[in-house]
Amino acid sequence: SCDASQLCNCSSMGLDSIPLGLTAKITVLNLAHNRIQRIQSQDLQQAVNLRTLLLQSNKISSIDEDSFQSLAKLELLDLSNNSLAHLSPLWFGHLFALQHLHLQGNSYRDLGHSSPFSSLRNLSSLHLGNPRFSVIRQGNFEGIELLHRLWIDGSNLSQYEQGSLKSIKAINHMIINLRNSNVFSEIVRDLLHSVTWLEVTEIKLPIEKKSLVQNSIRPFRIQKLTFKEAFFTDQTISRAIVLLKEITSLKELEGINCVLEGKGIWNTKEIERSGPSFVETVTIIKVNIQNFHLFFDLEGMESQINKLKRLTIASSNVFMVPCKLARNFLSLLYLDFHDNLLVNNRLNETICEGSWPSLQTLNLSQNSLKSLERTAKYISRLPKLNNLDISQNNFGEMPNACEWPKPLKYLNLSGTQIPKVTTCIPPTLEVLDVSGNNLKEFGLQLPFLKELYLTRNQLKALPGAAPIPNLVALSVRRNKLNSFSKEEFESFRRMELLDASDNNFICSCDFLSFIHHEAGIARVLVGWPDKYVCDSPLAVRGAQVGAVHLSLMECHRSLVVSLICVLVFLVILLLVAVGYKYHMVWYLRMTWAWLQAKRKPKRAPPKDICYDAFVSYSENDSDWVENTMVRELEQACPPFRLCLHKRDFVPGKWIVDNIIDSIEKSHKTLFVLSEHFVQSEWCKYELDFSHFRLFDENNDAAILVLLEPIQSKAIPKRFCKLRKIMNTKTYLEWPAGEEQQQVFWENLKGALKS
């Protein structure tokens, strides 16, 4: 259960005793929320370097006297919420380094007849007491000189021996839960010289007759007195005001969640006779006054408030302050009336002419103010006001012009349901908060503005920098901001803090490039990098902006597409070149011819044979073909029918179809081969299809006549089978002599008849 720093967490493991094997390496041991009943001498003997020991919420009822003897370095010991029926000084005798001790929530009724804490010279905070704790005796706190915090649960404390707490020289903050009002005065008298801040809870304040400073050691140290969940009446509060004036060091009074039973009928004459008050700060939060609407106007208290500097009355149903009373707060600098029932009509009385003459800070947030124009008009009566909070009021709209106090520097209009800002905003402001409204833009001319808060609005871009040239801090958190550019960012020349977190950022290439390369942006952006998350593209949604790096394709799509197009064009060009070199066109033609042939019978029926031979020849050899060969064959007996392209092709018909039809309607195909034939494009077509027919049907339909000597290698390589025929079969060669020519014609006629 131990980590690398030797913090061992064994809480909530159902342990009945302290586990064995604890070593000197352990510095923190958490055994809270188990079922341990007893701590024995040897349990912690080896844990000599332990600094924190947490044993709260067990069932500990017995501790051996020397159980903590080896824990000289222990700084925090928590034994709260156990079953200890008594406290022994021997437990703590060797805890010389102990600073924090928690003993509350046990079952002891007292601290014994001496001090359990006499050896704890470094003790800083002490928590003790429980619902059964009833007695504090003299000497119980001997040995303790200085405490930062003392907390005593004395809800059932019934006996307090005078002087019991006097031995402590200084306590910064003491909290005591005290229901028995009879011991309150005695405790206060013993603490006036030592406590700086005394906090008393659950007390029902008595009507005290004796002085609170009687038998007290001077000079007084107490500066702040807090009552929490206390109960007052008109009589007890009147008497308390008189008695507290005797404590000349007391500067601050605080009441939280208290109940006042009365109508404000205080003994103002006795209060006035007792002299001026030294209290400078009064804070009242959530005071419950039954029938508060019948509460009197505190007439006669004017002389007691003229030196007050800070007043807070919050969440207490305040609906007005009488003008006469308000004019006597001559020294008041700070006034907080947040979360009350102030309305515009009553505000005219509360802030009347001549009231609150020194006021610098005013908080009227969370009230029921409806008109911003009237609110500003009444507040303009405060000549020294520079800080104003009127947030969380439902103004709904903002007029174009308003009156404001001339020194006003800070204005909070957050959560006031204003759809847009106007020149009603005073140009003298240094800090403006218009968060939580429905603003879609911000373009006011505020030359002195240093801080602008636009959180939770509808802005889609940063406000322009030109109208607010001195801006130092800007918050646009939780808006509809998608991104911001380098130019927008750098236009705020004095910007030190920018909070643009919790927006739905579109992580475009330009935005990411700016974020990654802008020097020092991490120092300016508040919440960086955790609160800056991409909303799109979908592939990076939810990722931190600073961790996203888009690919080249995503960032330079047009360039990549252009390069792909160029590459495709080059590939096509290469394929064309390769196709040309390796006669791909010929193969395509052959495929077309093959498809055409598949739709026709492999050989035309005899009735469709019109010619004995189709003659394929070059135009350069036409003289020999037409004047010599045709005359010889067509005038023979019986005559041969020859198909010549010049004479027998069907006009208007596609030439390829003419070639194919003529070959198919001829018994033989006669090729007149020469150098010109090899170079002729149309001869190639005729040779192409005849080549297909030859080797598709495996017959001897072709007759080769060499008009002039030609090597087989001169025939294109793609006609591989035709070249093979020339190498393996007989072909007719036109002779030069007349005698041989007669034999040539006989052989040709014989070939045509076969």
TrEMBL record:
Q: PANTHER family this protein is in?
A: TOLL-LIKE RECEPTOR, TOLL-LIKE RECEPTOR 2
The subunit structure is:
Binds MYD88 (via TIR domain).
Ranges that cross the membrane: 559-580
The gene coding this protein: Tlr21
Q: Which cysteines are joined by disulfide bonds?
A: 2-8, 323-352, 402-424
Enumerate the spans annotated as TIR domain.
609-752
InterPro entries found in the cross-reference section: Cys-rich_flank_reg_C (IPR000483), EF_Hand_1_Ca_BS (IPR018247), Leu-rich_rpt (IPR001611), Leu-rich_rpt_typical-subtyp (IPR003591), LRR_dom_sf (IPR032675), TIR_dom (IPR000157), Toll-like_receptor (IPR017241), Toll_tir_struct_dom_sf (IPR035897)
Query: What is the species listed in this Swiss-Prot or TrEMBL entry?
Result: Oxylabes madagascariensis (white-throated Oxylabes)
GO MF annotation terms: transmembrane signaling receptor activity; triacyl lipopeptide binding
Family to which the UniProt record says this protein belongs: Belongs to the Toll-like receptor family.
Q: Name one GO cellular component term.
A: plasma membrane
Q: Which Gene3D superfamilies match?
A: Ribonuclease Inhibitor (3.80.10.10), Toll/interleukin-1 receptor homology (TIR) domain (3.40.50.10140)
Q: Where in the cell is it found?
A: Membrane
Q: Name one GO biological process term.
A: innate immune response
Instruction: Specify whether DNA-binding is a keyword of the entry.
Output: no
Q: Which SMART domains does the UniProt entry name for this protein?
A: LRR_BAC (SM00364), LRR_TYP (SM00369), LRRCT (SM00082), TIR (SM00255)
Membrane topology reported for the UniProt record: Single-pass type I membrane protein
Q: Which domain of life is it from?
A: Eukaryota
The answer on whether this UniProt entry bears the keyword Disulfide bond reads: yes
Give UniProt keywords alphabetically.
Answer: Disulfide bond, Glycoprotein, Immunity, Inflammatory response, Innate immunity, Leucine-rich repeat, Membrane, NAD, Receptor, Repeat, Signal, Transmembrane, Transmembrane helix
What name does this protein carry?
TLR21 protein
Alphabetized PROSITE patterns for the sequence: EF_HAND_1, LRR, TIR
Pfam families from the xrefs? LRR_8, TIR
